[in-house]
Specification:
mainly alpha, two-stranded antiparallel sheet, 2 domains, single chain, Tscrpt_reg_HTH_GntR
Amino acid sequence: MNSELSLADHITLELRADIIGGRLLPGMALVESDLVSAYNVSRNTIREALHRLGQEGLTRYVRNKGVMVRRLNVGDVQDLFKVRRTLELQAILGSQPLREYQSDRMLEALEAAELAREREDWRAVGTHGLAFHQHVVGLMGSPLLNEFFTNVVAQLRLVFCAAPDEPRFQAPWLSRDRDIHDWLAEGDKGAAYEAMSLYLDDSEQQLLQFLTPSIHH
């Protein structure tokens, strides 16, 4: 399938991966001339890739500044979590006890996140944690939904950047992710569903607090 992708497709995927990996942050400029040099392609190819990122909600054009990585707002976060609840909870409801390869993928992401936590690489903790949730959606076996959710994950990464204290934000989720995996492995969909629902509620609330100025009474 990759052989069918155009140059612009490949560059779009690489730039999106840089966002998911936390290497491109909100407010960063994506300078055409720099990207032309980095990828050794034409300006038209870069413009096409940047246009696609804009369609995916990852960049925006700012007059006199050019293309910038987006900063997401409260409405964006609320919308992202509507999507997460729809996809991740449905994936759990429709799941069977995890097959070995499905469990292995989830555990690989969780173990990578735990190793990153040990070396205090909190950006990597977030990246691997998001990969776990991609594997949850992957239980539905839909390439289209997987591709769609990858874009959701990229936007979530941009929201994570709003966390003023990344270690405090990232640390609590890993044990909850592991519990969800264990219940899925045992075929206890009810427990996994309830845990994921609470997880998403708590995550959304915390991210909204980061984006909403404190109101002092």
